[in-house]
Every structure is written in structure tokens, then in C-alpha cells.
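Table S2 (text version). Query chain:
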Amino acid sequence: MALDAGVMSVTLEFAKDLKDSDWFGKQDPYCIIRVGGQTFRTRTAVDGGRNPVWNETFRFNIINENSVDVEIKDEDVGKDDVIGTATFSLAKARESGTDRIQAGVVSKKSRKQRGFLSIALSWEPNKALKSGGAHAAAAPMPQQHYQQAPPAMVYAAAPAPAYYAMAPPPPPAAYYAAPPPAAAYYPAAAYPAAPMAYPPQPYPAGAVPVQGHW
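Corresponding C-alpha cell output:
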């Protein structure tokens, strides 16, 4: 019996016990999910290591597609390494409306199962999609739900600072040079004028004047 067309909501919840592709630190896994020609990418679970959590929902237009391919990669500087791949069916969800799956993750190198991917499916029939043919199936729904993403923070713009007119500074004080002190004039000492010549002194009695000195 042909299944009805509709919209499949695929929620990639988490992965467990993945192969660790990093030698140092923890790997940063993300998923690329493909249904027919529709492809989506999850956010990167930074430091998710072997047990990353995404909890992201993607909506796919489904007509004849009945399987989903998921590639898990480790985000690195340069080239992203492939951790593993998983494939699961949409048949049960299209019949019953919902389904929960633990899809085994196969390592790229060893081709052995290394952990699993937890998925939740929800189906919404939509017969209108069938009339659109292949074009409806190729157009992905733009709506994506990031359940773990924190709500956007709204920051109110800070009010413009109030600028107040500042009073002009007072004029600089006028400084005048002090006048020099008055010169001190002292009166000249009153000394008697020195005599220009001394009168000859009398010789004592009995003294004979020396020749040439008189």
C-alpha cells in the first residue's frame, strides 16, 4: 500500500559511545542529515566527546523517501574527520505517526558499530505535497528547532551620557612683581679732615740736629 505524502519531523537527540577521533582533548561532533535531496546540519556539540547532545529538530517534505542518512563528523581546524555514519527507516513513523529509534553508528575505518544515535520521529500527513511531485520533495522546510540553544539575550541600549555645560574657569589671578626694596643710604661718618702737613716738632734740649735733616 502506498504511503501518504507529508512532513517528517526528525529530532536528533544525542549519541552515545562514539569512536573518539581526537588524540588530545575532546572531539566536537556535529551531524549532517540527508533525506533524498534535502540536507541539514546540526550545531557543533563543543567538547561533546563520545556522548554529544544536540536535541535539534528538522522537518522534511516526504513523498517517496523512506530512509534517512546521518553522517557524524568532528569539527577540527582544517579538515573535519568522519566519526561514523548511521541509517534508519521512516516506514514505522509514517504508518503509526511517531517512532523512536536507536540507530547504530558505524565507524568509517573499521566498518564496525561504535555507539548509537538516538532519534525521535513525528509524522504529519499532507496529501497536497503529492501534487507537487519531485519539486515539493526537493524543497527543504526552512523551519529548524534548536531546543538546547539558549534564548537570545536582549540588551537595552544604554542611554546617551548627559553632558553638562561646565562653568568657565575663573580668570587667572594677576600677579605683580613686588618693587625692589629702597636702597639704604647711611650718612658718612664725620671724621675730621686729615691735616696736610705736620708742623716741625721742637728738638729736645741738648740734641744736635743731624746734617741733611734740617
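Notes on Table S2: Strands lie at 6-16, 29-35, 38-41, 53-62, 67-74, 81-89, 98-107, 113-125, 144-146. The longest helix spans residues 91-96.
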